[in-house]
Amino acid sequence: MIISDVELRRIHLDLVKPFRTSFGEQTSREILLVGVTTADGATGWGECVAMSEPLYSPEFVDAVELVIRDFLLPRLTGGADVKAAEVAHLLEPIKGHQMAKAAVEMALLDAELRVANTNLHARLGGERTQVPSGVSVGIFPTLDALLDAVQGYVDDGYARIKLKIEPGWDLEPVRHVRDLIGPDMGLQVDANTAYTRTDTEHLCALDEFDLLLIEQPLATDDLLGHRDLARAMSTPVCLDESIESFAQAVDAVELGAAEIINIKPGRVGGYLNAVRIHDMCRDQGIPVWCGGMLETGIGRAANCALAALSGFTLPGDISASTRFYARDIVTDPISVHDGFVTVPQALGLGFDLDHDFLDSVTTSSHRLSALDGRG
């Protein structure tokens, strides 16, 4: 396809309630959307999952917009015929910036699928039309507040509970939640790099709670520490922030640092790289699941299609849109029924935009020339 027009649109969405993790608290999201219009009139949209500050990863929204505008788009525009499957290769000379690259690939993939009159679920060959839905539960000021929130998610029918933990907020919250939900419901924890190797004995105390996994307990670059922790714990160690590429996933698996991998398309450079990691893990017998980054209905729909692949054997963080937003920017937001979400079947990535609401939450919009990538 030939790109004729690009829009970089910033939107602001308030969260229905604060979401706190070990790296900070979010009350809203500033989101960068990438709109790509092709020469044949198709428009595709991608969503960047970067946060406003470089807390989860080095990327953040202001920097992502600059990188896309000044470095990524010029390599894809200027009248050249570009396919979504070529984006990763064409952008490879730009080091890092996986979330920026993923948003661009996502927009082109959405447009390409719409031109072909198909959707991402069909393109990826997902074997399921429904996927189990888990919910991510942040850090609360009190145990009572945590238990009230968890009970609400249990009542909503979620298939799995994930608790955010940090030093000082781990054993007791997990103990109380396990008592609340019983021994049969899936429970896992996510530390977002909050611990160090010296915490090994303390983390091993989590083994008594029969957790599905412990996610990213140590620093992003500490693969050896994760390997040693995996040897010490009976709870499987899952990597998240440590996996930013296919090569890193291969290394982590071969080293024994990743017994499970959380695949986030934005973190690994796009959905097509995510599929490569899925395929490798499936072939190596490594379970994977689809993580979430508080996406709008754009990313949430695409995540559903990805999670329908056979290797995604654990419930992902594909919760209902209302978990985070009072109103979504798509016309048919994701919802949960009996612990499952239905994979969207709309064209493209699987969504249709609610243009009126999207315009009402837009804070800026810049159109770029397809001839030179500049506004």
Provide a descriptive summary of the structure in words.
The chain has 375 residues and is an alpha/beta fold. The chain has 2 domains: 3-117 and 353-369, 2-Layer Sandwich (Enolase-like, domain 1), CATH 3.30.390.10; 121-342, TIM Barrel (Alpha-Beta Barrel). The protein is built from 12 helices and 13 strands. It has helices at 61-72, 87-91, 98-115, 120-124, 143-155, 171-181, 200-204, 223-232, 246-255, 271-284, 297-307, 355-360, and strands at residues 3-21, 24-38, 43-47, 130-132, 134-137, 160-164, 186-190, 214-215, 237-239, 260-263, 288-290, 340-342, 362-369. The strands form 3 sheets. The chain has a 7-stranded parallel beta sheet. Helix 9 packs parallel to helix 10 (271-284).
What is this entry, summarized?
The protein is built from twelve helices and 13 strands. It has helices spanning 61-72, 87-91, 98-115, 120-124, 143-155, 171-181, 200-204, 223-232, 246-255, 271-284, 297-307, 355-360; strands at residues 3-21, 24-38, 43-47, 130-132, 134-137, 160-164, 186-190, 214-215, 237-239, 260-263, 288-290, 340-342, 362-369. The protein starts with a strand and ends in a 6-residue tail after the last strand.
